[in-house]
Amino acid sequence: MQTAIPGLHHVTAMCASPQENIDFYVKSLGRRLVKRTVNFDEPGTYHLYYGDHAGSPGTIITFFPFVDAGPGRAGPGMASAMALSAPAGGIGDAAEMLAEHGIDFVGPVERFGESVITFADPDRMPLEIVERPGQDYGHIAGITLWVRDPEPSARVLTDVMGLTAMGEERDDHGQRLRFKTTDSTTVDLLRAETRVPGAMGAGTFHHVAFRVPDHETHLAWRERVASAGLDVTPVIDRQYFDAIYFREPGGVLFEIATDPPGFATDEPVETLGQTLKLPPRYEAVRDRIEKILPPIRVPA
Ligand code: ZN
Asked: What does the alpha-carbon distance between residue 264 and residue 266 come to, in Å, rounded to a whole number?
């Protein structure tokens, strides 16, 4: 079977106001809302998906907006930053884009030989743009996982998931061990001292989803994760992909998702995200769901 995870599928986070979230990711960051649906486990709240025009795996950022959610904060056992890519020579354009939208940023600074700028979304969730040759703007270039002890997490990344260790660096945040998938998406394990535990809430990452190309490979990956002694869920149908979930040893919730069927399975690519899509089991209560969900407007 395939012995290395090719890349990320999506990253999922929590936010407070869905409208502020849409305005930021669509207007300021130029992402497209590619799916407007509900949290399948809690259908009274939205699940918003952003990505490139086609909703390609590897470009997808998703949010659960909890209107009354208090602010969370990153801590050990949670993802603590997500990086979007800028093409070679494109970090200046990215900085200009942020400045034009009135977004404060820090940098560029050098990290593992790459230029990085750091900023935050309206819920203060840490974001980065990294110059990554060979990638267009908007791909998820990497994710940072905050862990107390990187060693067990590193072993899962390399020995179970087939990522390549890229060395380590120390920066203002702490000690950073870098790994990469076969498509050069980076996973950084950050060891940082803190006395304050993290707390889920608006502006925190919920989980990190890796991608596999098909259902057969997905089942093989489930076996592989289970054989490594990790407690993995059964395959769950998420309408746009199949998913399995497990916690890596540092506590971060990992998902492995299939590329198929993709976001154009229930609406055409041209009109992705324009109307509320529900899985078949919730269609019978669509009226009730639509009454509960706050109205949202996608900026042009
Ligand atoms: Zn997910």
From this structure: 6
For CA atoms 220, 161, 186, 102, give the dihedral sign. positive
Domain 7-292 -> CATH class: alpha beta
Q: Annotate 27-56 with b (16+ C-beta within 10 A) or e (fewer).
A: ebbebbbbbbbbeeeebebbbbbbbbeebb
Distance 213 CA to ligand 1 centre (A): 16
For 234-263, what is each residue's pLDDT tens digit? Answer: 999 999 999 999 999 999 999 999 999 999
Q: What 3-state class would DSSP assign to 195?
A: coil
Spatial separation of the C-alpha atoms in residues 7 and 138, rounded to whole Å = 15
Separation of CA 224 and ligand 1 centre (Å): 19
Q: Which of 279, 282, 212 is nearest to 243 (CA)?
A: 212
Distance 257 CA to ligand 1 centre (A): 7
Sign for the CA dihedral angle at 146, 198, 130, 65 comes to positive
Q: What pLDDT digit, counting tens, does each position of 52-78 carry?
A: 999 999 999 999 999 888 999 999 999
Q: What is the separation of C-alpha 276 from the centre of its chain, rounded to a whole number of angstroms?
A: 21
Share of the chain above pLDDT 90, in %: 92
